[in-house]
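User: I need a structural model of Peptidase M20 from Kouleothrix aurantiaca for a docking pre-check later this week. Nothing fancy, just the predicted structure tokens so I can convert them on my end. Input:
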Amino acid sequence: EFAAGGLRGRVRLLFQPAEEDEGGQPMSGAPMMLRDGAPDGVDAVIALHVDSMQPFGKVTMRDGWDSAAADQFKAWITGSGGHGAYPHEATDPLWMLGPVLQALHGIVARRVDPQQPAVLTVGQVHAGTASNVIPPEVFLHGTLRSYDEDVRNLLAEQVEHALSIVRPLGGDYRLEISRGYPAGKNSAVVSGWLARTATDMLGADALDPTPPGMGAEDFAYMTDRVPGAMFHLGAAVGDMSRAHHTPVFDIDERCLPVGAAILAETARRFLNGEVALK
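Assistant: Understood. Predicted structure tokens for Peptidase M20:
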């Protein structure tokens, strides 16, 4: 079809490194590619993500939000520390940790509009080296997830307020918040292209209506710059739960040519004018 002149335009294949790592750089793969001009001049961008929990033959295609913004916070609660036998002579950051955790976990419940998705999770707490020593510092490390940019900013602001509780208790704190991937939003038009291609190839019952979760994906940087969409390709092996980011992760590799075909056919339809951005 291309040789016969039926297709007009170009298809640019983007092979992205470091989707969930910085690869030695101060950013993940998508912003590196944006920095280097990889998507410059393209009309639309499409992508897939395998889903090891979704049956083979199913496709999840969302119109709108597809992934959450992911930020991190690191905090240090500090006190004087001291001897465990003489707590009255010390300021104890482990004691201060209790009200801080209560305040942190109250942010989503009492500070965020309940109609706006948000997550705050504390994944690490480290302190102390001995049973009879009050440590001078407690370290916390957590993640903040959201879709709405105002909610994203509110979460960061409220983490600061939660930590400030330690000051009336005789302690202090340091806080670092690192903004990570933005929230990913699929173009309604481009997601429609992919959905039609998938149903034409796999049947109307192939589309799965599962709503988005609070996972993050750096393809969001691409759709922030260019109209685009990502679909999730069913890849479950079926013998057991093989979730992403686990030691038993695996996929049914029969899905790979299916995913490639959906991408290729969607691009073909755009090049021959069967679908358009307007």
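Before docking, keep this in mind: The mean pLDDT is 93.
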